[in-house]
Amino acid sequence: MVRLITHNLLACHAKDCNTNNFPLEFKDIQLEIREAEFNSDFLKGFMPKLEWKALVDTARQLGDTSLPLEQPEMVDDGFLKSLHHVLLEIHVEEGSMTCPNCKHVYPILNGIPNMLLAEHEIG
């Protein structure tokens, strides 16, 4: 499933595409919200791995404005619940992700992104 926790780790891997290839841009998407079990320790541990600006920008493009523009140093339960929702409960079911650099399109069908490349696209 394409969730923002996964999306925040994905970059284009097409041949010779190694600059400005993150974050992939969602297009023509269908969203589904699914509840997930809340785990504050997991979220606190995962926060240092996040590209914060990319996460906030993507969440806002998807209609969620609950995260602050700057990653807070002190976190409370309210913030962690917002982060949990954005990372783990927003699912992209259909659509595509497009590289901002080379414009390669990665389709998403039934919640699964196709990240495979044709042989001539592999670097």
From TrEMBL:
InterPro entries: Trm112 (IPR039127), Trm112-like (IPR005651). GO terms for biological process: rRNA (guanine-N7)-methylation; tRNA methylation. Pfam families: Trm112p (PF03966). One of its GO terms (molecular function) is protein heterodimerization activity. Belongs to the TRM112 family. Interacts with TRM9. This is Multifunctional methyltransferase subunit TRM112-like protein.
